[in-house]
Amino acid sequence: MIDWSATFENVIDLLSYDPKSPMLFSSGLFWAIFLMFIPIYAFLKSNRTKMMIFVIIFSLYFYYKSSGFFLFLLVATSLIDWYLALLIEKNRKQSARKCFVAISIVVSLSILAYFKYANFFLLNWTLIIGENFQPLDIVLPIGVSYYTFRSISYVVDVYRGKVKAATSWIDYLFFLSFFPALVAGPIVRADIFLPQLKENKAPSKSEIYAGLWLIILGVIKKSIIADYICQYNDLIFNSPTGYNGFETLMGVFGYTAQIYCDFSGYSDMAIGIALIMGFKLLPNFDFPYKSTSLTEFWRRWHISLSTWLRDYLYIPLGGNRKGTYRTYLNNFITMLLGGLWHGAAWKFIFWGGMHGAGLAVNKACRPFTSRFDGQKWFTVLSWVITMSTVSFLWIFFRADTWSDSWAIVKNVFTNFSIDYLGPFVQVRYIWVIMMLVIVITHSLPKAFYEKLSNLFVSSLWIVKLLVFVVVVQLVIEFAGEDVPPFIYFQF
Fold first, then answer.
1. Residue 186: is the preceding peptide bond cis (ω within 30°)?
2. How far apart are CA 261 and CA 236, in angstroms?
């Protein structure tokens, strides 16, 4: 006999918030729920109001499964900034408009500062005054950095006249809570998204298949490659001095590949899900490890964040309009705060500051290096320098502590021997194969992936099914005991 009472309790537990198991795009539960969501969404798509209410309910449930009752904080943020944006648009007095913008930014950043940085500032303050630190019992809501930045950009864009304020709170809540981009980006801009919501265009068959292709790519990157290679990378970073220099260097290279596959994989899935629903989100990655300078790297890496920092921080600081040295300073400040955005720790500030310094050095050297543009030797050298810098700085991004970071660096430079290459390949051959796959696929031209996507879209349904089955089988084959959360969930 089936114990229906126990079955019901298990289902309730499965659908309830579990802080140890936030809902992931790579989890079976999400896809089971999404498969039930999408036909209802398609049925309601022609009725804009009903469709929006249904998606908002689903998005809020998705956020509840990720952050529990912090969903009410999200709703409150949407209500405050929606109303302030209306006041900004309706008011003709410039001083009042600036005041409303300031209120919105202060409220948004205060919420973010409390949840994300309160303990960090208190820790450093107690160190300065020589008292014992007693951390506050604060839980960071997942995705708060992302929807805070979206909300700030919306209010600022209304003030600048770049976008019309949403007359309906439902429209704005839909934008702010849109679940594909809610907890780990991309940072969606209102001027791109709200016109699509107003148009409410149904996705074409080719767009649905293109979205499915992006989801498959994202699953391959995250659930097959990133989740597998992270198992070795974690061994290295959890024991900074427990391995020889060669093994440690491989762990550094592994994390360089892991964070790209993990985050770009999430972005691919988010963009693919949105496309299936009829919404086009801008690309968030553009083969960043092909970059031959840090300037180019930040044009290709986490594009939605780097463009946000450019438009709402770097340019308001003066950009490159106030002289050479001020340009360098603005670059440094922007990246320093970009590092702080990633986490409340000095290692993130150092990581961002070093990228800012690197951007300044890159700009300062351009009058000299530009004469070598187009020469193969210089292109190769520039790529090596850029990738070495990026990989080196990822150490501080990933390591648990400041001391661990320097222990890893010291281990690489003082305990390195190429003699370990052969034994390493023999023992870690699957890891090596996956790393080679990343290097090769990342080196292919962008046009190759466009052709591959078009080929998938135009293929027979049996081919699509076969690709899907193979990918699912690979996920099962390489899956570990636990499903690692997306790296950028913590930000």
1. yes
2. 19
Q: Are 24 and 262 in contact (CB under 8 A)?
A: no
Q: Is 243 left (phi over 0), alpha (psi -120 to 50) or beta?
A: beta
The first and second tokens of residue 381, run together, are 């050298």
Residue that wins the pLDDT comparison between 22 and 292: 292
pLDDT of residue 1 exceeding 60, the answer is no
User: Can you list the alpha helix ranges (DSSP code H) found in 291-345?
Assistant: 294-300, 303-309, 324-342
Torsion of CA 87, 76, 116, 329, to 10 degrees: -20
Q: Tell me the mean pLDDT in the region 361-381.
A: 88
User: Which residues touch 453 (CB under 8 Å, ≥6 apart)?
Assistant: 210, 213, 214
Which pLDDT score is estimated for 37? 94
Q: Say if residues 146 and 67 touch (Cβ distance below 8 Å).
A: no
CB atoms within 10 A of CB 474: 16
Nearest C-alpha neighbor of 289 from the set 374, 219, 390? 390
**416-423 long-range contacts, CB within 8 A, separation 24+:** 416/244, 416/245, 416/246, 416/249, 417/244, 417/245, 417/246, 418/246, 419/246, 420/244, 420/246, 420/247, 421/246
298-311 pLDDT, tens digit per residue, is 999 999 999 999 99
Tens-place pLDDT, residues 451-487 = 999 999 999 989 989 998 898 888 888 776 566 666 6
- With CA atoms as reference, report the closest residue to 396 among 300, 289, 255: 255
Residue 432 CA neighbour count, 13 Å, CB half = 10
Residue 24: CB atoms within 10 Å? 22
Buried b (16+ CB within 10 A) or exposed e, 106-139: ebbeebbeebbbebbeeeeeeeeeeeeeeeeeee
Active site residue 342: yes
Backbone φ and ψ for 24, nearest 5 degrees, come out as -120, 150
Q: For residue 278, which of 187, 191, 185, 180 has the smallest C-alpha distance?
A: 180
What are the distances in angstroms from CA 445 to CA 102, 293, 452? 45, 18, 11
User: Which among 302, 342, 355, 442 is annotated as catalytic?
Assistant: 342
Q: pLDDT at position 485, please?
A: 62
Q: DSSP character for 281? A: P
Query: Rg for the chain (alpha carbons), in Å?
Result: 24
How distant, in Å, are the alpha carbons of 41, 157, 181, 489 from that of 21?
26, 36, 19, 12
Burial class (CB in 10 A: 0-12, 13-18, 19+), 8: exposed
Reading the block at residue 89, the tokens are 């648009």
Q: What is the pTM of this model?
A: 0.92
* Per-residue pLDDT tens over the stretch 142-162: 888 899 999 999 999 999 999
